[in-house]
Amino acid sequence: MLIDVYDFDGTIYDGDSTVDFVRFCLRRHPSLLTGVPGLTGAALRLAAGKSSLTAFKSTLFGLMARRVSLQDEAERFWQDAGTRANLGEWFEHTPRDLPIVIASASPEFELTHAAALLGVEVLIGTRCDAITGQLLGANCKGEEKLRRIGERLGEFEIRAMYTDDAKADGPLLACAREGYLLSHGVVTPYLKA
């Protein structure tokens, strides 16, 4: 199957949607601030190399899930006009002659509504139990994106890969016939070395 693959944060979405989602939830639910001490410890372990990003995200979403419905908040987040304004207009003008896959490190529960807004049927993101906030498997980045796309679609070939981060998405760019780098909605061809 021939597909086009798009990273989400910094690519389709101008910014980091997970950071913006957490800020959105904090504004709506200031009680989430009671989880800051536990989150600070997890952040320090991550910065010291004693923990993984997967563990940090499990801590973050686990703390949030104890106080709010992650699915409900994600739906509200994507209903917000300010959030939707960060969806790149350029995306609407890209070719739609092949199946489109969004492959992101952001949690799937957070991006489900965004994918629906964009008319994208295949979403590959970090698996996270929206009830408990615990990650279910590895953070969806780099080689993990390739593995998960294959798990979902079977054999595939990438015609075009769009990303804002050539290093993080290097494995996908290496497999793609064409690569494109984005910066605030400006698309430039990626030249393979």
What does this molecule look like?
The protein has 193 residues and is α/β, with parallel strands linked by helices. The chain is 43% helix and 18% strand. The protein has nine helices and six strands. Strands 3-2-1-4-5-6 form a six-stranded mixed β-sheet. Helix 4 packs parallel to helix 7. The chain is globular, with a radius of gyration of 17 Å. The protein starts with a strand and ends with a strand. The mean pLDDT is 94.
Global structural class: alpha/beta
Main beta-sheet annotation: 6 strands, mixed
How many angstroms separate the termini?
Answer: 26 Å
Count of extended strands: 6
- Sequence of secondary-structure elements: EHHHHHHEHEHEHEE
Could you give the order of strands across the largest sheet? 3-2-1-4-5-6
Helical content, roughly?
A: 40-55%
Our Rg estimate from Cα atoms comes to 17 Å
Q: What's the shape?
A: globular
User: What percent strand?
Assistant: 15-25%
Number of helices: 9
Mean pLDDT over the residues:
94
Write the layout of secondary structure elements.
Elements: E1 2-6, H1 17-28, H2 36-47, H3 53-65, H4 70-79, H5 81-84, H6 89-92, E2 100-107, H7 108-118, E3 122-126, H8 143-153, E4 157-163, H9 170-175, E5 178-183, E6 186-189
Parallel strand pairs: 1-2, 1-4, 2-3, 4-5
Antiparallel strand pairs: 5-6
Notable traits:
193 residues; alpha/beta; 6-stranded mixed β-sheet; 43% helix
What is the structure about, briefly put?
The protein is an alpha/beta fold and 193 residues long. Helices cover 43% and strands 18% of the residues.
